[in-house]
């Protein structure tokens, strides 16, 4: 048996039929809203002065921060024991041990 599924967009402002989904971003947060042609035009008209005065952001995406590479856990445990620092034989190594190790460089 064949089926036909119809998806109808509903205008998020007035509940009428929407013609498109508009995407926009403010303060680093992205939004999308389903709008009729009239409401989409109103939104674009309202934003036009700000868009014209603004700069386009590159699509390179998020900026990345460099993270420090942590030492091998086995090496760190051996170093800590040699220094008289109590460290669990398995599981998570406390941050204070990493901090102490970093201070020896």
Keywords:
alpha+beta, Wheat Germ Agglutinin (Isolectin 2), domain 1, Dihydrolipoamide Transferase, 2 strands, 13% strand
What do you see in this structure?
This is Lsr2 family protein. It comes from Mangrovactinospora gilvigrisea. Keywords: DNA-binding. One of its GO terms (molecular function) is acyltransferase activity. The longest helix is centred in the middle third of the chain and has 17 residues, at about 35-55. By secondary structure, the chain is an alpha+beta fold. The protein contains three helices and two strands; from the N terminus they run E-E-H-H-H. It has a two-stranded antiparallel sheet with strand order 1-2. A hairpin with a 2-residue loop joins strand 1 and strand 2 (about 30-35). The mean pLDDT is about 90. It folds into two domains: about 5-55, 2-Layer Sandwich (Wheat Germ Agglutinin (Isolectin 2), domain 1); about 75-100, E3-binding domain (Dihydrolipoamide Transferase, Irregular), CATH 4.10.320. The radius of gyration is 28 Å and the shape is elongated.
């Amino acid at each position: 048996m064949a089926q036909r599924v119809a998806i109808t967009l509903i205008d998020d402002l007035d509940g009428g039929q929407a013609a498109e989904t508009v995407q926009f971003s403010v303060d680093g947060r992205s939004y999308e809203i389903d709008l009729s042609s009239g409401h989409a035009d109103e939104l674009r008209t309202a934003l036009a002065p700000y868009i014209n005065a603004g700069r386009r952001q590159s699509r390179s995406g998020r900026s990345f921060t460099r993270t420090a590479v942590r030492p091998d856990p086995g090496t760190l445990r051996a170093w800590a024991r040699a220094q008289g620092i109590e460290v669990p034989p398995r599981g998570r190594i406390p941050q204070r041990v990493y901090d102490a190790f970093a201070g020896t460089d």
